[in-house]
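Quick one:
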Amino acid sequence: MKKLEQYVERIVLDLPMTDEERKDLQEELSVHLKEHVKELMIKGLPEEEAIGEAMKAFGHEDQINWELRKAIFPFYKLVRFLWNVVFVTFGLSAISYSVSEYYHPEFENTVPLYSIIMGFLIIFVIAAAIEAIYEGVLDLFKGRWFANPWLVFLPPALVIAGIQTLTLIENPDQYQDGFWLDLYAIPISTVLYLFARQLFNMAFPRKNQSFNGKKAV
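Output:
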């Protein structure tokens, strides 16, 4: 039943609850699944096949973990989204300021407040649309591959970066004094957004916990 235990551990991994609550939930899920396995074995299925069928019937562990997370902390997704947008906004502002300081240190290079606000609104709208598309992809494809946003969003961003690089090589004179950075706004924003998402997942409420004395990874 080790495979079944690992499956349950992945379901309860990093849920925002106390160790005792997590342990109780883990035991409850284990009992339920083991009873299902026994029922399947009574019907004639070998143990390994019965375990596989029980897990398949119960659902993908990542999806169950996410549903439990939303039930425990219903505003998790909204808070993470706002954090991501703020992180990208100030990240791009910091990059813009740094580039301006590098190329024109003689000027007073400040980022106007209205530019930050407009940037925030633009990023908000675009990010909201992308998140909606991503949620639709997750609903259609339940596999682990699509559960990783880096594998979904980063490849298109890299393709865009490659295309923009070709544009820069063909017309270098048009993108001097830091204007070349505009070509990479989408790839840079994508990386910042994914990085912010990862930071949030790691910091709140995700924290490494241990199961049966072993550290979860």
